[in-house]
TrEMBL record:
GO BP annotations, alphabetical order: cellular response to starvation; endosomal vesicle fusion; endosome to lysosome transport; late endosome to lysosome transport; macroautophagy; protein targeting to vacuole
Family per similarity comment: Belongs to the VPS41 family.
Record keyword Membrane present: yes
Xref: InterPro entries: Beta-prop_Vps41, Clathrin_H-chain/VPS_repeat, TPR-like_helical_dom_sf, Vps41, Vps41/Vps8, WD40/YVTN_repeat-like_dom_sf, WD40_repeat_dom_sf, Znf_RING
UniProt cross-references to SUPFAM superfamilies, sorted A to Z: RING/U-box, WD40 repeat-like
GO molecular function, one term: zinc ion binding
Compartments it resides in: Cytoplasm, Cytosol; Early endosome membrane; Endosome membrane; Late endosome membrane
Protein name from the UniProt record: Vacuolar protein sorting-associated protein 41 homolog
Amino acid sequence: MAEAEEQETGSLEESTDESEEEESEEEPKLKYERLSNGVTEILQKDAASCMTVHDKFLALGTHYGKVYLLDVQGNITQKFDVSPVKINQVSLDESGEHMGVCAEDGKVQVFGLYSGEEFHETFDCPIKIIAVHPHFVRSSCKQFVTGGKKLLLFERSWMSRWKSSVLHEGEGNIRSVKWRGHLIAWANNMGVKIFDITSKQRITNVPRDDISLRPDMYPCSLCWKDNVTLIIGWGTSVKICSVKERHASEMRDLPSRYVEIVSQFETEFYISGLAPLCDQLVVLSYVKEVSEKTEREYCARPRLDIIQPLSETCEEISSDALTVRGFQENECRDYHLEYSEGESLFYIVSPRDVVVAKERDQDDHIDWLLEKKKYEEALMAAEISQKNIKRHKILDIGLAYINHLVARGEYDIAARKCQKILGKNAALWEYEVYKFKEIGQLKAISPYLPRGDPVLKPLIYEMILHEFLESDYEGFATLIREWPGDLYNNSVIVQAVRDHLKKDSQNRTLLKTLAELYTYDKNYGNALEIYLTLRHKDVFQLIHKHNLFSSIKDKIVLLMDFDSEKAVDMLLDNEDKISIKKVVEELEDRPELQHVYLHKLFKRDHHKGQRYHEKQISLYAEFDRPNLLPFLRDSIHCPLEKALEICQQRNFVEETVYLLSRMGNSRSALKMIMEELHDVDKAIEFAKEQDDAELWEDLILYSIDKPPFITGLLNNIGTHVDPILLIHRIKEGMEIPNLRDSLVKILQDYNLQILLREGCKKILVADSLSLLKKMHRTQMKGILVDEENICESCLSPILPSDAAKPFSMVVFHCRHMFHKECLPVPSMTSPAQFCNICSAKHRGPGSAILEMKK
């Protein structure tokens, strides 16, 4: 009955712990599992009293005096019957080849697991602790210590005999010992001591804080973090001690080393065991709680905490309550914490249970994230650590994530994640598409479907297009525009669109989409017809891209109506495909469009459309008068008489004036300017352009009785006609506006002309003198004559082969050379000689002469 109640209580506490963990959002640092197999079998008949851990195996001591060697899975590999009573401690050296055991009846054994050497001794008092030298395997380190009422050091002498020496006594039972390197730490009723085995000196004493606790019920926990750092846990107090070398100047009679407490703090519960974890501590705590109903203390589940030590306090990193078997009956002394340094494994030992705690790996982290439904983080963690995870696959996590998003109704996010998670797996893509179809969310996944690598079955794409066609024309058009035409059966979709157009024949979206489908299907004629009907901007691109000029010869008016500028540019750029004649004929009934085409043609080339220049005169006059005059000026092919007739009919004065002047009738043109336009400035400008004295005379005669015209002439005539001619003809008494200013301007212009002439004369004289001096210097220079020069007349060498003979030669400044006898004899009328080659007119560089004689 008691056992059943115990199981019930245990399961209740376990479920409570699980519920607490579910509510917590903080991920645990460690994971736990029971050490089973042989351990389960042992603890059903016996109870664990102590355990020590090696990297390769475990050694478990029991209350019935047995020591079992176990592998890391808990399987029994060896069994030793040491004593009929409780094993107090088991110790191993670092090599794992030697083991020391002590029992409650005073028995001590130290023996080799793989050799015959051993030590047996039975003392007259219980031996609580034993520790073999870490390097016991070495012949120089055959040492171990035992502790009961006193701490004894056993050493093997050179004759293979064991001798003992007392390291400490008189302060109660020795209950804990840890040997690391050359340092031995032990705890008795008064505190903790450290002994240096090398110098044979005790270097410190750390007193116990809470002397009210019974040392046998709340034993001290010791743990070496490294060769010089000792961690002490006793009651609720933790101390971290550092062994340091003493400076030579401070030695005197003191030990060479001393201990400094670098951190000291209190914990909430009683400490049953300690172990290091990097720069943190793992603490096994014995917990007592008060029942709310009975107000009595009871043993609660032990706790395993990871804490971060600080100088005077600590920070809790994680805390887990452990459901070990029989925890309700255990005391603080019944729990032990052992650890394996190499693998960060922690063993929680109690009389009826051994629990292994280990650091959580990436698989455990992902498990926790999935349990908390943090799929995004789980997927990210799996991708980062994909080489290290063993139990999880990125694809499985991703699929679970998609299912989770779908279950929550986040369809768009789920569809977006498909791209990354499904990758190039076509089968999975198709499976997910059908899942989205079942929940009516095909639209959500459509933007993310693969379109190249991989390509899904055409049915998948057609299914989504039909879904859009039934409910969203714009979305359907977008997919047709974005998806390549080879993803689906084009004819099936074309037929579906045509069926919908029967219900809504003027739907522009459907018509445009149908045109695009026709384009994919290379049915360009139908596509072009729809584009023109819709007046769609892509019509020109379609024509260019697929060379549809033969299809638009009868659709030129439609193109011009849609966008005349683009249409004209396209037609002119492709004259070889659609001739100018054909375009003009097609536009015959639309003269305004005909004018636009011919005008742009004329701008490009003044001669290409010369046969239509006569026609263009009427078109310009009708639709574009501002460009008529530039056309008349630039065209050399339009008939002037026809142009003059049209301009006179329409009373286009400026154009008529231009045509009259171009036909040589300047006087009529000037008369028209003065009589029709009454613009003296234009008349003066016209007279200047023609530069005809008779025109100036006509202009003066017409203006002589018009004061404003006279003012204009006075202001502008000075540089072309003598102003006196105009001034003499002005009638006396005629009032002329701004006459004084005009006369002043005439005088200023005259003075300016005089100044300009004088300035030009000075410049001319200076340039002439400079050039004359330059010519003189040039002609004064010598000219080289050598054997390579020839006579330009007889073409023989200019110098004789015999230099001793006399010779005579003539060298001109043009550098042509002649024998004197080869030149013609100068006449009496013109005694000067000239180069026959350069100076036939007796001037130029050949007119100067240089005569040489020898």
